[in-house]
Every structure is written in C-alpha cells, then in structure tokens.
Amino acid sequence: MSVLQILTKDEIKNFESAPKFDLLAKNHFFKMTDALNHMTMEMKNDSNKILFILMYGYFKATNKFFDIQRDDENYLYIATRNNFDSFDFRVVTPRTIQRYKQLIKSNLFINEYTLDIESQLKHHAIN
After folding, report:
1. H-type helices in 5-114, by residue range?
2. Sign of torsion, CA 79 97 56 20?
3. Does the structure show a pLDDT above 90 at 5?
4. Distance CA 56, CA 85 (A)
5. What separation, in Å, do the N-terminal and C-terminal C-alpha atoms of the chain show?
6. Fewest C-beta in 10 Å: which of 30, 55, 63, 66?
7. Residues near 86 by Cβ (< 8 Å), separated by ≥ 6?
C-alpha cells in the first residue's frame, strides 16, 4: 500500500517556517492594538518589545508560534518602525517567550484545549 503525499518537502518547509511578508503584510500583521501597544511600551527593554511584536505578528498571520531565528529580517523592520534599538538575542529567556505566548493568545481570545473544552465540544456535537 502506498503512502499518500499531501505536501511536498518544500511545502512542509514553508508550513513549518515563519511567514515571509512583503511591506504591506508587515504593516498589517505587525500593527498592534492600542492595548497591546501600551503593554509593549511598558516592557523593560527594546529586545523584549521587538520579540513580542514579532511573535504577535506571526501568530496573527498563521495562528502558530515559531522558533525565533537569529537571522530574521523582521527584527530590523520592527525596530526601525518603532524607533527601537537593535535586537539582542541574549536578553531573551524561554520564560519570557512562554509568557508572551500566553499574552498573545489571551489578547486574541485563543483558549488552551482542556478537558472542559473537550467535554463542551462533545456535548455540542451530540446535540
């Protein structure tokens, strides 16, 4: 029995990689709400601000989080657009990344999949 290939290797790579944005898409996906903009401005350093905006834009575009790459071209775009200093990878901690993921999901009203949600979905499917 043969295996059905749904995506090519290049399509898989593109699916698992952070999106590539043109200028119009960057302006759209990296634009923050007033509430998020206020929260971002209270972060302790520019690297954290850049990271948060980058994670937010990628999640807004794809509903997924990606490993942050050192050579990501969007660091410079975000820094320039917001008058931030350059991004310093050394100040980013795994705990900060986890916290930002939670903040982003909360702001976009994304709930974690829990047993309670599973139960509600089953209930709605049956009725």
Report:
1. 9-16, 23-29, 34-41, 46-62, 74-82, 94-107
2. positive
3. no
4. 19
5. 38
6. 63
7. 46, 75, 76, 79
